[in-house]
């Protein structure tokens, strides 16, 4: 177990990804420590979503390796440096360690809030109904939606739906949470309540990677900020450096447009 603690929660080693002859990620190397909160900033089309999707193997890198807590995503390391590709069933099990929250909330429309949250724990983790319900109610309290347990998604605002989506991801007890522009689809007045919930999760010690255009939020919540352009890391470091004193012209140009 002690060696386990020394592994980064997420390790990307020279990860590249191409779609046909379009190279979207170019040799990205990035380690996220356990409990660390890393925000990824960058222009639209720079590869941010593709990088997150590689982390939980919704996409397979063309080159390079991603490890989650030391285990290579999609592979079994039979001996140091010797890998065997895993069947999809095993990849699905690996993927369960990683919660993901998307721009669109993707709740099940025909299920109540409570049913949305307990669905995967019941079916995938094999939790008992009483246990799953108790945990779901705790999570609903944490995202401030206890009163909505029996509501259906269409009866909720976008901000409330996204808070349920976060609770639903947490119910799987992931080791890492990925957020892909979690507030981009929301009306401006609903952004704050979702960012507050994400901040709260970050204070619980969860390892998080957050793609966001909310610069002041990224400054507040992140241990480190990564600026990506055209599939490469241009600059990374503490928010006081990358956001407040960017070294690179491309970072400065981007920040001046979104700030
Ligand atoms: P971002 O999230 O930074 O806006 P994306 O990772 O979504 O960027 O996309 C990066 C580039 O990869 C874009 O040019 C996009 O069109 C392309 N891309 C993303 N997914 C696919 C795909 N499945 N097939 C082909 N091209 C894709
Ligand atoms: Mg994206």
Automatic annotation (TrEMBL):
Family: Belongs to the ABC transporter superfamily.
CDD domains per UniProt: ABC_HisP_GlnQ
InterPro entries reported in the protein's UniProt record: AAA+_ATPase, ABC_ATPase_HisP-typ, ABC_transporter-like_ATP-bd, ABC_transporter-like_CS, MetN_ABC_transporter-like, P-loop_NTPase
Entry's localization field: Cell membrane
Pfam families linked to this entry: ABC_tran (PF00005)
Protein name listed in UniProt: Amino acid ABC transporter ATP-binding protein
GO molecular function: ABC-type amino acid transporter activity; ATP binding; ATP hydrolysis activity
Record keyword Secreted present: no
Domain of life: Bacteria
Membrane topology, as annotated: Peripheral membrane protein
Keyword Zinc-finger tagged: no
GO cellular component: plasma membrane
Domain ABC transporter: 10-255
Assigned keywords, A-Z: Amino-acid transport, ATP-binding, Cell membrane, Membrane, Nucleotide-binding, Transport
Signal peptide interval: none
